């Protein structure tokens, strides 16, 4: 299945890409030339954090350890392990993320 994703950068520039249901959001963004910060690529560090504005994602049984409970409540996701389940709108990573945030 193919989904559409609108990725809004911090400069308010939109990139519209197509994502396959079997690829992670980060894989799709990278494949389409959208630069995003990344490090561990397994959901542990939180470097790739993005805000989910609209749509549904699934972690396929993986735990987004790089997110704390407040970030989850605020609809942040880790695109390195997330796969889409609908069309999406994403907002780029905020400029800062607390390194001391309480983990879930």
Automatic annotation (TrEMBL):
Gene3D superfamilies the UniProt entry points to: 3.10.20.30
Segments forming domain 2Fe-2S ferredoxin-type: 6-96
Domain of life, per lineage: Bacteria
A Pfam family: Fer2
InterPro entries assigned to the protein according to its UniProt record, in alphabetical order: 2Fe-2S_ferredoxin-like_sf, 2Fe-2S_ferredoxin-type, 2Fe2S_fd_BS, Beta-grasp_dom_sf
Signal peptide: none
Name used for this protein in its record: 2Fe-2S iron-sulfur cluster-binding protein
Organism encoding this protein: Marinomonas phaeophyticola
